[in-house]
Amino acid sequence: MFDTLTDRLGNIFGRLRSKGKLSESDINTVMAEVRTALLEADVNLKVARQFQDKVSERCLQSEIHTALNPAQQVIKIVNEELIEILGGQALNLTYSDKPPTVVLMAGLQGVGKTTNAVKLAKWFKSQGRNPILIGADLQRPAAVEQLRILAEEIEIPVFSEKSDPITVAKNGLSEAISTGRDVLICDTAGRLSIDEDLMNEIRQISDEIKPHYTFLVIDAMTGQEAVNVADSFNDKLSLDGMILTKLGGDSRGGAALSAKTIVGKPIAFASTGEKLEDFEVFHPDRLASRILGMGDVLTLIEKAEDAFDQQEAQRAADRLLNGQFNLEDFLEQMQQLKKMGPLQNIVGMMPDLPQGVNPDDVDETRLTRVEAIITSMTHEERDRPEIIDGSRRNRIAKGSGTSIQEVSLLIKQFKEIKRMMKGAVKPNKRKKKSPPSNSAATSNHTLEYKKRGGTRSPRRERPAAPSRGRGPSSSKSLSSPQSHHARGDRN
Ligand SMILES: Nc1nc2c(ncn2[C@@H]2O[C@H](COP(=O)(O)OP(=O)(O)OP(=O)(O)O)[C@@H](O)[C@H]2O)c(=O)[nH]1
Ligand SMILES: [Mg+2]
What we know:
Layout: H1 3-17, E1 21-22, H2 24-40, H3 45-60, H4 70-85, E2 101-106, H5 113-126, E3 131-136, H6 143-153, E4 158-159, H7 165-178, E5 183-188, H8 196-209, E6 213-219, H9 225-237, E7 241-245, H10 254-263, E8 267-271, E9 279-281, H11 284-292, H12 297-307, H13 310-321, H14 327-339, H15 343-349, H16 364-375, H17 379-383, H18 390-400, H19 404-424, H20 427-431, E10 447-448
Parallel strand pairs: 2-5, 2-6, 3-4, 3-5, 6-7, 7-8
Antiparallel strand pairs: 1-10, 8-9
Helix pairs in contact: 1-2, 1-4, 2-3, 3-4, 4-11, 5-6, 7-8, 9-10, 14-16, 16-18, 18-19
The structure holds guanosine-5'-triphosphate and magnesium ion.
Guanosine-5'-triphosphate binds at residues 107, 109-115, 137, 140, 143, 190, 245-246, 248-249, 271-274.
């Protein structure tokens, strides 16, 4: 599920990546598209609208974040807001001081109450608890039998009797206490929220066993309609959370994305298939990143934020603008990149690797060799590589354990980068001490991203290769790691 939504969002953000600067109208266009994609995934209109407004507002007021480019900033905000509408944090289930902790399952017919009562019992067991299941569905003749068969698989006792649901629940609680069970899960019959009698019955069960947790089981396949049902259950029972079932199917996911906002209660667990093990605590952040389908790009964004030293970047940017960028700065930028972790991992996290690029092919040692070459140079040589003649080359090659050819190549490529940078920086800007931010002055609401010959991704494994022909907006060379981060001004 979510495949279509993921594809749609992928396309939308893919187009953003080629932009160095996002205007207010860019952001509005993108967010309108995101809203359409959400509606197509059957997300509630109110939720989609709120989401659009919130993300747009945050993008427009976005704090300057020099470690991220505009596309990354938008993805980061979308991700954070997706997590928010999915409920923020995973439910932190606590246990009653006076066992058993009582859980009541409620919901429409066939949504998966019985199956998930057992899955939940299995989960409690995995947490070191001793659950008991109560079969209070006396509506359907085979319901208790179904519960017993499933529970037998995981060796969990079931209590039921031929009386009425309220009495079964009450006696079940006594049974749990007398047998020392610390968690009680009560399965109930499916009922429609408009069926007054049955709704009153579950209310009475609830009054009798006073559940610590009342979970509404909802079927993701029924889309956001399932969520509307939840509202009326919530009125009657005061829900603590929802268990979302059949998430593995081809449902469009609208229910998952609308539930929290509409019902005001979080999704506690998710069931992704028929088997008892297809069940997990619902993690909003994990689902959000799955919906975004960005591989681990979010981890990458986090890493970039962590590792990136903004002051250093600013200094490098200043030097760049002043035409002073030298091999020393280059080395520093490369070391920043290395702080993000093994290059292969970083490349593996890139969601938009060009075809044919395989993270396994990334040769980290080349980065190390470039580093060795630069560290074998004197400060003067790093500052003015043009003084490196034949004998210096020889010495550097020996000192770094590389070859004269490699040293020559690095110097040549570095010259090329510098030449390109000069072309990229307008003369009046080069004179200024600190980088001006006037280029964003035309709009009060822009995310700007100055890619001064920098690299956005380490996916190219040619360490010192200049990003030929890409000019100032190049984002794909490894030549000057992260120097693109140097500025991300916004007025
Ligand atoms: N694919 C899939 N099937 C599920 C999931 N959860 C439950 N089912 C199936 O859905 C059907 C109904 O599940 P039950 O647990 O009997 O549903 P119920 O809500 O107890 O049904 P009633 O008691 O009749 O109201 C069964 O065939 C389950 O195997 C799920 O997460 N994924
Ligand atoms: Mg059932």
